[in-house]
Amino acid sequence: MSRTMAPKNSAVFLLGLLLSCVAMSSAARILEEAVPSKEEHQPEGPQIPKVELPPFPEVHLPPKPELPKVKLPPVPEVHLPPKPELPKVELPPVPEVHLPPKPELPKVELPLVPEVHLPPKPELPKVELPTFPEVHLPPKPELPKVDLPPKPEMPAVPVFHFPKTEAKPRELPSR
């Protein structure tokens, strides 16, 4: 059952991914094309007050208890019997193989390819193109210079500073 479900699940996933990409690109296009009108002036956001947190309280832990040392019993020695020696096996020598010589293939003479004589290319008649009359266009009119209004300034983004705390080195547990 899992072998047939995996391709279906991946196909559904890929289809969903494709649809989300299409939706995101169309939404981005709509946002790019939307031009704010002059009447819509967005007011600046409220100023966020800086919050000062109280200092972190110190934590006092009790001292670590010392554990008693545990003595392990000695490991008993194990005496294994010696490994038996395996007999040496001698293989018979490989016999030499004498193959018959390769037969020579007969030489085959290929027939000569006849020469092909093509007729000469016919000369194409020369065609004279008609001359086009010269066209005199009137000069381009100068466009009037338009003064654009100044660009509005971007509102300042408030910066949030995290309060700095003193970092204390932690003691690592000893083993």
UniProtKB/TrEMBL annotation:
<feature type="compositionally biased region" description="Basic and acidic residues">
    <location>
        <begin position="34"/>
        <end position="43"/>
    </location>
</feature>
<dbReference type="InterPro" id="IPR044659">
    <property type="entry name" value="PELPK1_2"/>
</dbReference>
<feature type="region of interest" description="Disordered">
    <location>
        <begin position="156"/>
        <end position="175"/>
    </location>
</feature>
<feature type="region of interest" description="Disordered">
    <location>
        <begin position="34"/>
        <end position="70"/>
    </location>
</feature>
<feature type="signal peptide">
    <location>
        <begin position="1"/>
        <end position="27"/>
    </location>
</feature>
<feature type="compositionally biased region" description="Basic and acidic residues">
    <location>
        <begin position="163"/>
        <end position="175"/>
    </location>
</feature>
<protein>
    <recommendedName>
        <fullName>Periaxin</fullName>
    </recommendedName>
</protein>
<keyword id="KW-0732">Signal</keyword>
